[in-house]
Fold this sequence. Notes:
By secondary structure, the protein is of the alpha+beta class. Helices cover 30% and strands 18% of the residues.
Amino acid sequence: MSKSNQPRIPETKGVGGDPRERLEDVADPPGKIWFRDLDEAVIEADRCIQCASCVAACPSDSIGIDEAEGRPTLVRMCTGCSRCWDFCPRSGLRYERVLEFAAEERALEEPAIYAAKASDDAAAAGQDGGVVTALLAELVEAGELDGAVVARERDDDPLRGEAFLATSRTELLEAGGSIYNQTMGLGQVDDLLADADLETDDPDLALVGTPCTIQGVTALDRYDNPAADPIALTVALMCTRSFEHGRLVSRLAEFDVDPEAVDGLDVSGGTLYAYDADGGELLAEDVDAFGAAGLRGCDECTDFVGGAADVSAGSVGTADGETTIVVRTETGARAWDAAAAALEATAVERPETLEKLSAWNRRRAESILPREFDPEGEVGITYEQHLEAYDGTDREPEPLNPARVHQYEEWC
Ligand SMILES: Cc1cc2nc3c(=O)[nH]c(=O)nc-3n(C[C@H](O)[C@H](O)[C@H](O)COP(=O)(O)OP(=O)(O)OC[C@H]3O[C@@H](n4cnc5c(N)ncnc54)[C@H](O)[C@@H]3O)c2cc1C
Ligand code: SF4
Ligand code: SF4
């Protein structure tokens, strides 16, 4: 596999008019990009999509997850190695190029597209057809996978998801359904494995996540970052937007919906629904009314279908109670075949809906993305290139949060 497009560490940074004068007193050795730079350009600028690629990519485990804020944070000394920048789809990683090389190098000639539903107890546990749950449960039961990094609702915080390593059918059934906040599972694989105490030292896991998370792990894998080693199968949940949990819950409250009473949420056909435990509808509201609760970085995303994943799953284009499935790689096709006994699959009723939504999503992103959208470009975006495109826009780097400056004084 050619590595000519490997993310590049720029030889210089901040040369020729770096506008961030507040950092002039910090002497950065040439070529270094610190987590601090990513923090300002992405996290403080409210563009982070919480994919956790930076957490996974860091070779010195210097980046952790701020539990309260659900975002990456520095937890020990940053060496300025730039890996977090290189693998961040909102800064150094040209994600559209990742999608392009995934299509060139990994995709089947023709992706297989199905309308499917689980033929077993996963149907009731899942969000749509329960297909993702059924697929993973079959593979785990057959010993093809040692587990799957999925999401489940936290006990102590209604509607808030957390990353979870499910290693049995029972656990997968418990984790069925969609969680509308990012859980940063990609950044927690090692910790989840340590807690799970599996019998093998060389596990094969599935990673389920939003398309941006799958872009991150695909890039990590392509450039031999060990963080991707345990991931044997990737499943993307089709997505036009994820939400910041606190803002989502506040917005629900503004519609007189008690988050404690909500058993599940669904976004379908432009409407956000909230249901109670008996399936009763608590809310059906235009999803645009929840726009301010969404992650602002999602506006820069064109990848509704999860084009880098082995398998993608969504609801668009199929009837209620079914999942739209795209099987894109040989790994995905092998997984699909191995789980066939638990699935009922037919042709997608309205394939054009999938294409229309993808096209709309791409138009939205291209109209907002301050940099050029270039699937053929270099996969690495240098620090200077980023500043050139973003400075002077409403997405330019923001100064560090004063409450966290001490971390950088201590560790950088
Ligand atoms: C934020 C978000 C936005 C979405 N938006 C759309 C959309 O606009 N259009 C569309 O067609 N489909 C969308 N989906 C996908 C859809 O909601 C279903 O997940 C998909 O159809 C699969 O259904 P299923 O019944 O087969 O999956 P299930 O059998 O319910 O399995 C889903 C699996 O995904 C895991 N999971 C759920 N949420 C997360 C998460 N946030 N991070 C990691 N793992 C998770 C679960 O633990 C479970 O293992 C979205 C999903 C999410 C999470
Ligand atoms: S977008 Fe992803 S990689 Fe970038 S800072 Fe946020 S979590 Fe890290
Ligand atoms: S819209 Fe894109 S960036 Fe936002 S969560 Fe979904 S895949 Fe990630």
